[in-house]
């Protein structure tokens, strides 16, 4: 499985309530649309994975994101900048809302936004890609697992460079234990695929 990232830059900066809590809101993910990385997320894949992510992370107050993109799928608590509070489907778009935290990186985000800096978001997850023979476009497969949506400084940066690094790396635990994730997925019955996908992902994170 590869680390897959996608960038979006059209965000609203919102201040709410007496405490002037700050949020960002905008498109966090899109389906059935070829993006700048020549990839397509089938709607069925995103719909199912967002439903799982909402139930397990967003609704439980555990959907943490970071400032900047790390080189792996794990959430680094010392880099957390925001908490995703909403992630809802609107046609092909999945609109998210995130609360900016009072963490060191959250304060950086607040200061940047307050100073007029335009920030974006970038989804981060693990999954397989398969080229559609008719269109030549890489399609994200049914094993996709969303890790989080991060805040990034330059969502319009050359994607080929970023993804050339991310997607060229097969992740393993300390270089000694390597999970053959694709084979495990391939040998799993379709009705058991969701449970197997979550099991593999959680095992992967524990061993990083």
Round the mean pLDDT to the nearest integer and report it. 77
Secondary-structure content class: alpha+beta
How many extended strands? 11
Count helical runs: 5
Distance between the termini: 14 Å
Radius of gyration: 17 Å
* Uncertain stretches: 156-179
Element pattern in H and E: EEEEHEEEHEEEEHHH
Say what oligomer this is.
single chain
Largest sheet, described in full? 5 strands, antiparallel
Q: Any idea how many domains? A: 1
Walk me through this protein's architecture.
The protein is α+β, with helices and mostly antiparallel strands. The chain has one domain (2-206). The chain contains five helices and eleven strands, in the order ββββαβββαββββααα. The chain has helices at 43-58, 104-114, 159-166, 181-186, 193-206, and strands at residues 2-8, 11-16, 21-30, 39-40, 64-66, 80-90, 93-100, 120-127, 129-131, 138-140, 145-152. The strands form three sheets. A five-stranded antiparallel β-sheet has the order 2-3-7-6-5. A three-stranded antiparallel β-sheet has the order 1-8-11. The longest helix is centred in the first third of the chain and has 16 residues, at 43-58. The two termini are 14 Å apart. Residues 156-179 have low confidence and may be disordered.
């Amino acid at each position: 499985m590869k680390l897959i990232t996608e960038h979006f830059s059209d965000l609203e900066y919102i201040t709410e309530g007496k405490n002037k809590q700050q949020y960002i809101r905008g498109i966090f993910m899109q389906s059935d649309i070829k993006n700048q990385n020549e990839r397509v997320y089938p709607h069925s894949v995103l719909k199912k994975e967002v439903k799982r992510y909402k139930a397990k992370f967003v609704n439980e107050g555990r959907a943490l994101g970071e400032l900047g993109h790390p080189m792996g799928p794990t959430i680094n608590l010392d880099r957390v900048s925001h908490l995703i509070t909403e992630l809802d489907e609107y046609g092909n778009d999945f609109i998210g809302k995130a609360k900016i935290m009072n963490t060191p990186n959250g304060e950086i985000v607040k200061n940047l936004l307050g100073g007029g800096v335009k920030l974006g978001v970038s989804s981060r997850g693990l999954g397989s890609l398969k080229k559609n023979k008719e269109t030549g476009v890489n399609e994200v497969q049914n094993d996709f697992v969303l890790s989080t949506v991060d805040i990034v400084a330059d969502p319009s940066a050359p994607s080929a460079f970023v993804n050339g690094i991310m997607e060229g790396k097969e992740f393993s635990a300390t270089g000694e234990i390597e999970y053959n994730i694709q084979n495990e997925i391939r040998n799993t019955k379709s009705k058991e695929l969701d449970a197997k996908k979550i099991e593999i992902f959680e095992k992967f994170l524990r061993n990083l």
